[in-house]
Write a structure and sequence with these properties.
The chain is built from four helices and two strands; from the N terminus they run ααααββ. It has 154 residues and is mainly alpha-helical. It has three domains: 46 residues; 36 residues; 37 residues, no CATH class. It has a two-stranded antiparallel ribbon. Strand 1 and strand 2 form a beta hairpin.
Length: 154
């Protein structure tokens, strides 16, 4: 006698996904995605129409029947005041920054060194004149051997 438990709906169907090739699985996946997107595309106007009709009905009862238009106008007035205030603040801040940078100059163009040339030359065990010469190269090759740096300009 067979083991107890839930059985497949149709015992004649054998599902062995590992026997399908990767390309077949990809193609079937794309076909499945295409069908679902198409179904949603077909049903979306119907759902939109239903929601639109419900929205108009609710809007009519809230605004026209219950004299909600007074509250709606107050809401528009307060919202316009808030949006105008935010706009004025942002424009004022923008002009303030523009004037500040125009007076003080562009900060990104200034460059400050973290350490001076004497410190760097002392760390690398070279003289300052050699360091100045190395600064003119576009690329340096540095080999580290124990505590010594072998620097060559390229």
């Amino acid at each position: 006698m067979d083991k107890s438990g839930q059985r497949a709906a149709s015992p004649k169907v054998i599902v062995k996904n590992n026997l399908r090739s990767d390309s077949r699985q990809i193609v079937e996946g794309f076909i499945s995605i295409f069908c679902w997107v198409f179904l949603i595309y077909i049903l979306l106007p119907i759902i939109t129409l239903i929601l639109w009709l419900l929205g108009i009905n609710i809007f009519y009862h809230q605004v026209v029947v219950d004299y909600g238009y007074q509250t709606f106008l107050i809401l528009l007035e307060d919202g316009g005041l808030v949006i105008s205030s935010i706009f004025v603040i942002l424009v004022g801040w923008t002009y303030y920054n523009y004037a500040l940078f125009r007076i003080n100059g562009e900060r990104r163009l200034t460059c400050s060194s973290i350490s001076n040339d004497q410190d760097i030359a002392r760390i690398l065990n070279i003289d300052v004149e050699s360091l100045e010469k190395f600064k003119t190269y576009h690329c340096l090759r540095v080999n580290v051997l124990d505590d010594q740096y072998l620097i060559r300009g390229i």
